[in-house]
Amino acid sequence: MNNSYNHSLSANTKLTQKSVNRCFDGEQHYYTHQSVSTKTPMTFSIYLPDEALAGQRCPAILYLSGLTCNADNVTHKAHFQQKCSELGMIFIAPDTSPRSSKGSDVANDERYFVGQGASYYVDATQAPWAENFNMQSYIVDELYDLLRSEFPIHSIGITGHSMGGHGALLLGFKFPGKFVSVSALSPVCAASESAWGQAAYTEYFGADKALWSQADASKVIEKVGQQYSSILVDQGAADEFLADGQLQISKLQQACTSANQPLTLRYQAGHDHSYYFIQSVINDHIEHHWRKAQLR
Predict the structure, then answer these.
(1) Mean pLDDT to the nearest integer, 164-191
(2) Which residues on neighbouring strands pair with residue 182, listed in sequence order?
(3) To the nearest whole percent, how much of the chain has pLDDT over 70?
(4) What does the DSSP assignment read for 182-215?
(5) Catalytically annotated residue among 97, 162, 183, 194
(6) What is the pLDDT of residue 224?
(7) Is 142 exposed, middle or buried (0-12, 13-18, 19+ CB in 10 A)?
(8) In terms of CB atoms within 10 Å, which end of the chain has fewer, N or C?
(9) Cα dist from 270 to 170, 261, 278, whole Å
(10) Residue range 178-199: mean pLDDT, rounded
């Protein structure tokens, strides 16, 4: 049996396959493509279990990474492949932001929570960021449609870590018609009220606080109300960023209560913000998304 997945690329789609590695009962792939939304090359990894390689439609998880990360971090460190292989799940990890290929052709900032590697998965409105930092459009329109057209995907759930957890909650509730399930790991829950988010949003949106609110996961959840039968959030109880107020989990709890949105929030004793924490809980998140996909 030939396990290499030969997808049919349309005339408008130019995916370049960068690597393929056999991993458990499936393959780990990397692709690059030229993005219309960001006007830059973008990279994503995708784990395809053997069912998908044979052309069977499988449920998928879209994982959004945190500050300073790219597609490699979760792909190399989270150890999700075995559970996805067992359940027949596709796992997709895009980059966190557009990046410069020449050193100065994409806006950047020396603050790691603002420049390349950040983005908060929003569409910036202020120069120079608006030229390339259009990650909301990239994720929910361009990449979403590309994935659905080129790979045998049955449904998509969204998850993420830290800034990516913010992105998963924000995009999951802004676009509930696109995602069957939502979860998050140590998410930034109220970006417009955290020091990191305020620094980034001042650059991306300027002084328009209405735009800040539209890019704040907790505020969006409170506004739109219940969208899912349940969402799962794990938080390390020894997380240094929780202690210094960057994550604000209590704001998420308040928003879900106000929105009548069922929330399973678990504090994991002794765990910090690292990928050791993610390894410890990722299987529960994969199973959460798998169960929700079975109902569709």
Answers:
(1) 98
(2) 158
(3) 95
(4) BEEES----GGGSHHHHHHHHHHHTT-HHHHHHT
(5) 162
(6) 98
(7) middle
(8) N
(9) 27, 28, 13
(10) 97
- Marked catalytic residue, from 161, 183, 239, 289: 239
Catalytic residue among 273, 285, 288, 289: 273
* Rounded Cα–Cα distance for residues 14 and 12 (Å): 7
Tell me whether residue 273 is one of the annotated catalytic residues. yes
Residue with tokens 């090359």: 41
Type of residue at 33: H
Confirm if 21 and 57 have CB atoms less than 8 A apart. no
With cut-offs at 50, 70 and 90, classify the pLDDT of residue 4: low
- The residue behind tokens 């960057």 is 246
**pTM of the full predicted structure?**
0.95
Q: Return the structure tokens found at 132.
A: 């390339």
Hey, which residues does 263 pair with through a beta bridge? 231
Closest residue by Cα to residue 203 from 294, 274, 131: 131
**Confidence category of residue 296, pLDDT binned at 50, 70, 90:** confident
By CB atoms closer than 10 A (0-12, 13-18, 19+), residue 131 is: middle
Tell me the C-alpha distance between 53 and 27, whole Å.
8
Contact by Cβ (8 Å): 233, 263: yes
Distances in Å between the Cα of 57 and the Cα atoms of 9, 53, 121, 151, 285 are 17, 9, 27, 8, 20
